[in-house]
Structures are given as C-alpha cells and as structure tokens.
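Think of the structure tokens as a kind of shorthand, similar to the way a musician reads notation: each symbol stands for something richer, in this case the local conformation of the backbone. In the example below we present two proteins back to back. Begin with the first one, reading the sequence and then the tokens, and try to describe in your own words what changes along the chain.
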Amino acid sequence: MDLSAHSPSRYSDIEFVGASASVLKLLKIADDVSETNAPILITGECGTGKEILARRIHQRSQRRNRPYVAVNCGAIASSLEESELFGYVPGAFTGANKRKQGLFEAANHGTVFLDEIGESSPGLQVKLLRVLQDGDYVPVGSAQTHRCDVRMIAATNRDLCEALGRGAFRADLYYRLDVVRLRVPPLRERMEDIPLLTRHFVTRYARTYGLSTPEIRSDFYAKLLQQDYPGNVRELSNYVHRAVVLSGGAPLTAALLDQLPPIVQPARPVEPVPPPRPSAPAANTAGIPFHEAKKHLIETFEREYLIAVLNECGGIIYRAAKLAGMSERGFHQKLRHYGIDGTGFRSGT
C-alpha cells in the first residue's frame, strides 16, 4: 500500500507502450476522459498495465500537479481500514498518541487509485461509497466530518458483474465507479506490440545498469513471439530484464532465453495422451495409508480434468483456464506440475 503523495515528475518516464489498434483505441478514450473528474474503472488481467494507465490519466488531467495516491484494497486488514483510509486523532485507541493522516487527506485535490477494488471487504466498500457520493469521511476517534476533493480511479482483474451476482460487491458502489470503463487487453490480444515493448524494456534496463543499448537479433524477437504470456506485459518485462542483465551489453539472441524459466521454452513434442480411464480406488490404493491414497486420487483427478479441459478448448490456455474457473497463471502451474504440454492439444498439432 502506498499512502504517500507523489509528485508528477516521479512518473514522468512511465509510458503505456503500444501501437496496436486496441491500444490506440484505449489510449484515445483514456486521454479524452482524463480532463474530466469522472470516476474510472479499469479492468484487465494481472500484468496488463492497469496502474500505468491510471498514472497516465492522472498526468494528463487537471490534477497533474496534485498528489497521486495508490492503495491496494486487498492488502488492508479490516481492522485497519478506517485508520489507513481516513486517519485518526490522538486518543482514538490505545497507542494513538498523535494525529495520523489518512489516504484521502493525503490525496486531497489529486487522484486516488484503488487497485484490486474487487478484493475490498464489504465494510471498506461502504466507506468508499460515502466518499464517492459526498466527499465526506470521519477520522477514527473524531466527531468532525471532513471533506475531500479527489478523483477516483479503480482497477480490478475480477469479473465484478459476477461478484455482483454473488453479493460479493455492492451494486451502488459498482455503478458509482463504472462511469467510464477502460479494458486493458491482455498481451495475447496484441502480440504485434511485442517488438515495440521489447525495445522499450531493453532501453530502460540497459540505462538502469549503465550498459550501452544492445542490438536485438531477430531470433530473440521470434522466440518471444512464441509465448502465451499468462503474466502479460509484466512477464515480458521480466524476460527482457533478465536477458539484458545476462547479455552484459552484447547482442540479445534467443540463446539468452534458454536460461529463463521453463515457461518460455519452446513447446516440446508430446506423445498423444490417451483418454482418461475410470479410476478404481479400491484396487489402486489398497494397502497404502489413507492420506497417501487421498493424494493419489486427487492427483489422478486433477490430471484427467486438465487433459479433458485442454481437449475441450483445443489447447487454448486462456480459454481452458476460464472454463476451469482458474487464473491463467494457476492453470499453467498445474500443467507444469503434471508435466502436461498444453500446445500438444491444439488443433493441427
């Protein structure tokens, strides 16, 4: 959680990089609404650049010379919500010896970025709604209502409509936030931006380590373009970062990516996986301890389930993960755990 007021210069080198049609459309809408004070809801998967987009909007707004304050809603313990958001006065509770400034006071006349709004507790949602509606809040231990003037930008990687249906997210808060919705596309939907992003990250990390900007060979680009990127732009940035460090300023080649985690390795040929056969628990687990038998049966189920979902979705990982109700990263982790290569299920492979 970041409760400090940031000067605009701190983020002057932050860019939302991309030239694909989807990114240009996104940035056009973001720039159009940046000069307004309308609340914005940014949606998208982890690692797509939601906070970078929020900073861009702040930098192009009338509040650009005012504070930008970010908070991770899912990281605030329920017992600390009020004091972190709204501050407290001396004597509010044991140990409160001096006044504490809260997030909204720190952000007055600026922008508050509410990251992971979908993780916020019901109690926190109520308090955020009051600030959105009236600009009012009460510090802990105080009888005086304070007012603040902030522009709210919220972000989530969750399906808030689904959360509304389950009663996990307040409808009134949702409609207050969802005045302008900006969807940040996952990297797999804008693969044409990978060369541009790669050059951007190479330049950044070479400068960070005092290296001359290395040449980028075509096989390096080609290997990066082969990946699925469940971690999106953040994952690509990580791979480029490591490659620049390992290169020491020498040209970047595909060989440098051989030293990265297995997820970026080329797909290995796999033998066709036979259809799952019904398990026979009594026969397969007789004579072994209960917990070992349980683990065996769970692993058998999980492996057969993953194979069935991959077959159903033609090996398209993000579709399989969505069908399974899992995150793409979690789905990839399961595949690696069981040694299953999802590309072996794609049509024509």
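Once you have a description of the first chain, move to the second and do the same.
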Amino acid sequence: MAREIMDFLKPTPSKKFIDFTFGFGGHAKLLLSFGAKVTGIDRDKESFLYGKKLEKQNSRFKIIRAKFSDIYEQHEKSRLKNQNNGKELDSEHFMTLNPEKNLCTYTNANEIRNTKWSNKNYEADANKDMDKKTYFKEDFSKIISEADGILLDFGVSSEQIDNQEKGFSFTNEGPLKMQMGLNNVSAYDVVNLYDQHVLADIIYHYGDEVKSRQIASKIMEKRKEKKIETTKELSDIVNSCFRGFSKKPHSAKTFQAIRMFVNDEVNEIVKILHVLKSKMKAGAKLATITFHSGEDKIIKKEFKGCFLTTKPKFLQPSLEETLFNSRSRSAKLRLGAKKII
C-alpha cells in the first residue's frame, strides 16, 4: 500500500517525515525519492546498521535506534520534570507516578507480565540485547513536533522473518529468539521457564488460540525431557495438539503470541501513540499499518478525538498486492491528520 501512503503524505523537498518502523528502508527510500527529509527509527540492530549506510549515502536521512517505550520514557520524564519545577526525578519516582499498568487497558498483558516465573532467581542475561547506545541524546519531542508526516508499520519485516537466526518463522528452523531488538527476554525464556498457566495465558490473549491450555500442557511435558531450543521443536509440539488439515499453519497463532509478548508489542504501540497525540503539530499526518486485530483496535480507539480520519476508515491491500506479497493480506492501513486542539 505504498502508493496510498505516498498519496496521503504528499512528500515534497520542504517537508520532514519520521518512519518509526524503518526496517530496511522501503518506505523511507520512497519518501527520500521525493526530496523530503526523513528520520528513521528502529529497535532492530541490523536495521540500524543498514540505516547507517543509507545515512552516509543521503544527507537528508538520519537513523536512530530506539524502542517506542524509550521515546515514551523520555517524554514522561520531561513532562514530570516540568511539573516538579525542573528537578530531575529518579527512576523509582518515575515508575511510581507512571505505572505501566495504567497504560495497558486493552488486554491483561501486564498481569501476565508481572506473574512470577517458576524459576524466580532466573534472569535472562545471556539473551539480553540491551546495548543502548546514544539515542537518548536525541530530543524526540522536537523531532516529532517538527514532522509533517509520520509512518508506523507494525508488521514484522520480511527480512526478520526470513532470517533463520532471528527465530521468528515456524517454517524455517532456527534458535528460539523472536527478538526485534533491545529485549530483556527471548522466546527461549518464555517457553522453557514460564509456569504453565502463564504460558497458556500468553498464547490465549496474544494469539486468540482456543487450544492454549493444551499447547501449554504439551510444552511443559516436552521440556521435562529436554530444553526446547529451536523453532522447529516448538512448531512440532504445537502441531501435535491438532488433527486434520488447516489452511493456516497450526503453530501460527502460538508463534505470534510469544513474539508479541517477547517484544511487548501492545504496550509499545500504546506508548508511542500516547507521545504522538501529545507532540504532533496540528495538521501533521499519521499513517499506521497493523496486521493484528488487537493492534488495529488500539489504533482505532486512539484516533478518535485526536485525528481527522480519511474515508473509508481503513484501507486493505489490493488482490494484485496480496498475490505479489502474501504476507500483506491481513494488513489494515489507517490514515489521519492531527486535529487542532
């Protein structure tokens, strides 16, 4: 739906844009081709390194590595500092004033997230990717407030799915990771260390999987024999809980659920929208692409009262596009312009 996005954003040499999900630059390069200035933001290390190469090639482009929650945290610290007469707040004070559970009103994700693991002393140091570099030097509020248009594509990139080492795919064997970058937990941790009822809740709430209890029970049974280490092992375990043929792979919902939990995708979306609603200038345009009904509900709710939406209320890929890229078939594109408040 690149054409629809460009028709809506109307990039020109005088305009500035933010691609909050840079990936490997598909949308950013299109914006640059119109002469616009573009800031790309992504949490993925490979995407960041690719962006650094593009940055050297084009002076109108800049790449920043960050999660949406990092941007939210900077925004909230600045807001609370202003409320506190310019005094810096320590992290304990910040978390007390801004408990994450107040943000996530769409699922019970935080109840799941706060549940103790079976191994209470375990910390996933071996799987941490918390190599935060210098992106907190960036003034995200300034970057957002100056933007004429912003793009958020919440799908997993084809490059991530096709990279076996990332562990996103249930069709290719790879290590159980599913990390988009800057994570403090991996799919391996979730599958091998979480209690059975927590696993079942994750699979049910994030994947809408009706057999979540049976799948969690089977995972517990298998991990008593050995650690579950690869995507194929997990996929085989999930598939063993089903009978008969299905157009959609049986393991798809479970893989989606674990990926969404590992990357805290619901909270990340809520947090970036919170900042955008506060900092985008009047008339600035926002384009969002979702691939999950729960994410789309969040976008739909957050657009109300803050953005003037286009008609129809959302767009979907054409048949021609889905034939060319089958992964786009569930995409929903919503377009809106920030209201004058």
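Compare your description with these statements about the second chain. Residues 68-83 form the longest helix (16 residues).
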